[in-house]
Amino acid sequence: MELSEITRDVRTALEELLAAAALREKQLLVVGGSTSEVLGQKIGTASSLEVAAALWAGLYPLLKERGIFMAVQCCEHLNRALVVEEEAMERFQLEQVTVYPVQGAGGSLAHQAMKSLHRPVVVEKIQAHAGLDIGDTLIGMHLRPVVVPVRGSLKKIGEAHLTMARTRPKLIGGERARYRCD
């Protein structure tokens, strides 16, 4: 698969997710991406900075244009910490941790985020409004409590399985509760 196809496909998936999730400016989208899986290899075995750059090119410009914060999940070697803009950390009152993701410990996409964001920081946890998981990186722990699957036109990015999700507020109450104002 050509790098330009990866960029095109991840942008298509992101556009579909943004439409389904109706994210607003200053909300959070978590992205997990295994460049190894995109290449058809077992997660964590064939990390690629070139594939990370291709993924980034399909993700970041669109999110920046819409004013949506991106959180990039690191791999399990860094306990799935996340790279975010310092502004997002401050806005959501996230706790910064000290580590620098690199290709072999953190993941290529997280490393790309550290190199590319304006003021990148690493935080331990978030509760994002939506998520994009490329290669079964298990982003669920970083989503708000009520997660709704989003089915798009693409099932894979490269060879990596694609999962997308949005969140919604909890429905609370009993038999007299209303969820819309009539």
Count of β-strands: 9
Label the CATH architecture.
3-Layer(aba) Sandwich
Secondary-structure-based class equals: alpha+beta
Helix content: 25-40%
Report on this model:
By secondary structure, this protein is an alpha+beta fold. The protein has a single domain (3-167), classed as Hypothetical protein TT1679 (Rossmann fold, 3-Layer(aba) Sandwich), CATH 3.40.50. Helix content is 31%, strand content 22%. The protein has helices spanning 3-21, 35-38, 49-66, 86-91, 108-116, and strands at 28-33, 69-73, 82-85, 96-97, 120-123, 130-134, 147-150, 156-157, 160-167. Strands 1, 2, 3, 4, 5, 6, 7, 8 and 9 form a nine-stranded mixed sheet that branches. The termini are far apart. The mean pLDDT is 96.
Core attributes:
nine-stranded mixed β-sheet, 182 residues, Rossmann fold, globular, alpha+beta
Summarize the structure.
With about 180 residues, the chain is α+β, with helices and mostly antiparallel strands. Helix content is about 30%, strand content about 20%.
List strands and helices in order, with pairings:
Elements: H1 3-21, E1 28-33, H2 35-38, H3 49-66, E2 69-73, E3 82-85, H4 86-91, E4 96-97, H5 108-116, E5 120-123, E6 130-134, E7 147-150, E8 156-157, E9 160-167
Helix pairs in contact: 1-3, 3-5
